[in-house]
Structure formats: structure tokens, C-alpha cells
Amino acid sequence: MTPPAAPDPGARDAIAAGRTALGIELGSTRIKACLVDADDPSRVLAVGSHEWENAYVDRRWTYAIDDVWTGLAAAYADLAADARQQHGVTPSTIGSFGVSAMMHGYLAFDADGGLLVPFRTWRNTDTGEAARELTELLGVNIPLRWSIAHLHQAVLSAEPHVPDIRFVTTLAGYVHWRLTGRRVLGVGDASGMFPIDASTAGYDAELVARYDGLAAGRIPPLLDLLPEVLVAGDAAGELTAEGAALLDPTGALQPGALACPPEGDAGTGMVATASVAPRTGNVSAGTSIFAMVVLERPLGAVHEELDVVTTPAGDPVAMVHCNNGASELAAFAGLFSRFAEASGRPADPDAVFETLLREALEGDADAGGVLAYNHLAGEPIAGLSEGRPLTVRTPGSRFTLANVMRAQVNGVFATLALGMRVLADEGVAVDRLLAHGGVFRTAGVAQRLLAGALDAPVSVAATASEGGAWGIAVLAAFSRARSGGDDSGLDAYLGDRVFRSVVFDTAEPDPADVAGFASYVDRYRDGLAVERAAVTALPDASAPATEGATP
């Protein structure tokens, strides 16, 4: 047995003295905590996590609010235990902290701070009527999952709680509020609530006025309901005694840590991949998959496939968001893990996943005629009201394990590629595209196939492995540096202080992969008729509809 590594005195001293930054992220399946050295945020000192799951209750996706707090405390306790095991010290004070969470969705509160209806997550897409009306009114694409779409749908439906609404926020904004007492939001997360004016890094005043005219008499003025918008580097309050007790019920953690603006998972993904400057972009693959590309200029037209959001510093970003990511691929890996177990030769699930991914590289570039649809939920970009996972082939398809797995990986990227083609048609250029998410942990496989799917170089950095929890920890360290007099912009801070020594592994697009994926996605688009027929022919009472999807 290998003995544990000796404690690192430098790390122990940093933790004991509170020269640290804490990042907390509430993702769709895990709550993660990440503690970094505030003077060198690329240095991760301790991590912790807690698994949780959404529930489908009364035809809406939700998480129980109590689960937020039990999960946060569990993730922090896991981090504290990791710090003790690695460095022989329990954190009692931290220099700064930040909260990140799934963007969009709907948390509405009354004048006393009481939650009016259960948390409605980004997966809820019963907002088609509101999204259509708002897109027409505002002249920008308002996706089904945006907070303003949820709010306006509640108004249109005259839901009983509407007259009592006095505050609306996102999950990150809610947690930050409870930890600090401040009703604020980072501009990146705020841009998924309501459109942002890039010149002011605040809600677009003209569009706010239009909406107030539409909703007059039914709810208070919009700016009275939404969180105050802050940008990266701003101070966003301090951890209160009540907040410290929520994070650490043992009482070891002391209040007073500086808070950075709470951000969405898209913004922290940009930070975690150093993709905050124009002509840079990133792809995040998990339960959903989305691409973010920082724009040099406004888009020429409104596109249903594209959201316009911002970086944590307030620069405009085109976002291609797909509801379905790597979950179906993971389900296939689980199937083969069970086969290994049933055959009497159980294998580590991570090893099975890696084996299947590497097998995909042995497949034909077009997956041999096999098609895979990863749609567990509806997919607006593909015009699907609901999802039915399918693997489809013709009798002449080359049905091999390699081609099945190649089709599954291609299926993860196919809808994303359809949206990225819209960006390409707009003339949007990308010099660097970075990827993060569990599917990219197997070196050189998903990364290479994504490069072929998007016909662009794709890079992966080792530091992105901690994802959004690390990204928000970096933003917390940035706010601490700015409070200490550092006047660097976010891009310069990332380049000089965080990614200076990081090595990026880059996969260039292979012409054979590009041609093969182009053939695959053309067939994939034609085969969407089969997917639509499956939704009609195979009703699933447990599957929520995605209203507003169009072919």
C-alpha cells in the first residue's frame, strides 16, 4: 500500500492563514466545492462534492430547496475532510468565495423572502407562449429556459402566486443571497434572466421599458424584481455568520470572507477554459452540451438556435445550448459495465467508459451508416417537443461496436454542430475552442471527434478538470486581487496569474473526420423524421414536453 503523501507546508499555511478562495458550484448532478491558493489560483488545495438529482414533480423539473442546503453542507464537509487528509489542517477562514450554479430557471419570492413556488430549473420548457411573445416584443431571441420566459409565462397563465412576487433570481443568486444577504448576480448569469446592454453591463433599459409596458398592472416594475447586476472583480458582500453556519454547521468556518458576484455555469466554464476574449470559445459537455463564442460584433439577425449572453466581464457571447448531452452515452457505458459484471469479469466503470470511447476511434468516419439520437428530453434546435433515445441503422449499415460507439459520440455533438453552423453562416470566427466536461477526460478521443464535428481546433487543459467549481474559485480570487488594488482586466488576470504555465493539448481537425461527420450529420438531419415519429408513436407520460419547438 502506498503511504499518503507528506503534507505540503505551503498549502497548510495558506489554508490556516485564509489565503484561499473557495468556489462552490451547484451542477445538475453534483454539488462541488473547490479550494484554491488565492495567490496562485491554478493550485487546487482541496475539493469536495455531493451527488444530487432533480425530480419531476407536478410536470415540472425541480430540486427541493432543503436539498440545496444539505448538499452544500455535505460538499463543504467533504472538502474540509480532504484538506485535513492532505494537509493536516481544517479550514477556519477563507479569503474569498463565490457561488456558481445552473443558469436560467425561476425562483420567485414574496416580500418576506418566502419561496412562492418550487424551484423551476432550466429543464422546464413549458414557456413556449411567453418565449414567442417576448422574442417578438424585444427583438432578441428569448429561449424557453430563460428566467424572464418563466416569469412571463406565470403572468400569462395568471398563476396564483404572481401578485405576491417581489424578487426573482437564479439558483446561484439565491444561494449567494442566503450566504451574504445581498440580492446581486454576476452579469453572465443575469444575461440568462433578461437581455443585457453590452455598453452598460446592465439590463437593457429600452427592453426593460418595453416589458414593463406589456406587464403593467400585473407585476411590479421589472427592475424592482431582478437582482442587481455586477461584473467580474466587483465585491459582492461578505459571508455572514448565518451563511457560514449554512456552509459549515460544525461552526469551524468563520464569517467575513469577501464574496465575488455569483455566476452561472456557462460563465464559470468560460473562466475555467480561459475563453473570455473575442474570437475564443468553449464547449461544455455534461447532462446538456453547449458552446460559447465571444463575439467581436453583434449578430446580424435573430436566430432561434442562438442565445446572446455575456462573459462574467460583460462582453457579448453567442451561446448554442442543447438540452441533451452525454447522458445517453453514459447509459451505454452502464450497459456494458453490467455485461462485464454479469459475465463474471466486473470492470471499473471509468475503465469501461474509456474502452468504449477508444473503440469509437476504430469506427468509420461516418459511423458506418449507424445513427444515434441522444434525446432524453425535448430539443428545440432539432425541432423536438420531447425526446426518445434511438439508435437507428439500415440493413446495409456496418453494425460493429466501433461504429455504434462512433455514432453515440457523434450523436452527442450533432445538435451542437447544427447550431454552430448558424454561427458560421453569420461569419463568426473562432481562433481557439477549449473543451471541458467528463467526456473529455479520456485523452484524445472526444476531443478529436469534436474537432472533426466543428471543423476547428479543440484544446483541453488539465486545470479544467474541476470545471465550474474551480472557475468560480478563480473569480473569487480575482475579486480578492481587485480589492487589493490589482487593476487587471479578467482576460489579463487569467493569462498572467492563472493560465501562464498551463499546457493545452490541441487536436486539429482531421480531414477524414470532418468529411465523415458532415456525411453523418446530413443523414442525422434527415433521420430526425424518425425521431419525431417515435415521439408521436411512443408516448411517455414521464417525459415533459418542450413547447415552442419548431422543425
Automatic annotation (TrEMBL):
Q: Which residues form a coiled coil?
A: none
Q: Where is the Carbohydrate kinase FGGY N-terminal domain?
A: 21-246
InterPro entries recorded: ATPase_NBD, FGGY_C, FGGY_Carb_Kinase, FGGY_N
A Pfam match is FGGY_N
Protein name according to UniProt: FGGY-family carbohydrate kinase
Please give the start and end residues of each transmembrane region. none
Q: Which family does it belong to?
A: Belongs to the FGGY kinase family.
Q: Which GO terms describe its molecular function?
A: kinase activity
Question: Does the keyword Transferase belong to this entry?
Answer: yes
Q: Which residues form the Carbohydrate kinase FGGY C-terminal domain?
A: 282-479
Keywords in alphabetical order: Carbohydrate metabolism, Kinase, Transferase, Xylose metabolism
